[in-house]
Design brief:
- By secondary structure, this protein is of the alpha/beta class.
- The chain has a single domain, classed as Aldolase class I (TIM Barrel, Alpha-Beta Barrel), CATH 3.20.20.70.
- About 40% of the residues lie in helices and about 15% in strands.
- Strand 5, helix 7 and strand 6 form a beta-alpha-beta unit.
- Helix 7 packs parallel to helix 8.
- The longest helix has 17 residues.
- The two termini are about 15 Å apart.
Length: about 290
């Protein structure tokens, strides 16, 4: 098992806790399969109902069922949902998403602002009192928004505090705002990955850059991120074979360290999602996949 890099803001008394949390979600591989279940706020009901989707997908519990059976590394969702459903699914590794916003006020006319709904201390309190496996925290930053300073500060403080408790910090880093013309510009994506490193994140979730050579563009983003691990967002649902091939290319050609998957899992039935999640886990974790 590789030696886990422990940031200096993790106290010596919390180093084992940090290592245990890191190894739990990466299965000792330093790579991460993150199942993103924070979209009940982000997307409202747009991706959970209609368009030929099974009615079962609209139930929030569907997300937890996938997380419990699909061999994911960590399930990221809001603390409120963890509190509502966690007791029924106590063996899942959770990542508590601290901030979220709906799409109802997109730029223009206003730049996005997503503030914390919960504190790290509240996450820790729920973890201690419930015994649930809450391994870390997540936060979305809209880089380029006129409000980026507020989000950067909240995220930086959350990362520092999470490390004080031995928890992992994952940042969703999305360039977005009136001045952002192309949120998948390779140079901008690389810069955003570097910002995540500068505020101390353990993992940064980025969009796949649009470029003639996507592998090279991802390599540059990985370099810019330094010792913060880069994972790509899964995006809209596409044909499974194409999606799995994309993950393989991101890892082998782009040198990324994992994937964050939402719609490409939860828009399937539980049985289908389980099979797909196991295939993803095999790509990410290899022989470590259960």
């Amino acid at each position: 098992m590789p030696t886990v890099f422990i940031p200096a803001d993790v106290p010596a008394t919390m180093e084992k806790e940090f290592t245990d949390n890191y190894n739990a979600i990466t299965k000792g591989t330093e790579k991460l399969f993150l199942f993103a279940g924070d979209q009940k706020i982000e997307h409202l009901n747009d991706n959970f109902y209609g368009n030929g989707l099974s009615p079962a997908i609209n139930f929030p519990e569907h997300l937890f069922q996938i997380a419990a059976t699909g061999d994911t590394g960590v399930f990221a969702t809001q603390l409120g949902l963890i509190a509502r459903y966690g007791k029924k699914f106590p063996n899942v590794n959770y990542l508590a998403k601290l901030n979220s916003k709906s799409y109802l006020t997109p730029p223009p006319p206003k730049d996005p602002l997503s503030r914390s709904l919960w504190s790290v201390e509240q996450v820790v309190k729920l973890k201690q009192e419930s015994g649930l496996h809450i391994r870390g925290i997540g936060y979305t930053i809209y880089l380029g928004s006129e409000y980026e300073g507020a989000m950067l500060r909240e995220a930086a403080q959350a990362i520092y505090t999470a490390h004080q408790y031995g928890m992992i910090a994952v940042i969703w880093m999305y360039p977005r705002g009136i001045t952002v013309k192309n949120d998948q510009d390779p140079n901008l994506i690389a810069g955003a990955a570097g910002v995540a490193n500068a505020i101390g994140a353990d993992f940064v979730k980025i969009k796949v850059p649009k470029a003639q050579n996507v592998g090279k563009a991802l390599q540059i983003a990985v370099q810019a991120a330094g010792n913060t691990k880069v994972i790509c967002s899964g995006g809209k649902r596409i044909e499974p074979k194409k999606f799995l091939k994309g993950i393989q290319d991101q890892l082998s050609l782009g040198h990324t360290d994992g994937i964050a998957v939402g719609r490409n899992l939860y828009q399937y039935s539980l049985a289908e999602a389980k099979i797909l999640a196991q295939a993803i886990a095999k790509i990410i974790y290899g022989s470590k996949a259960e």
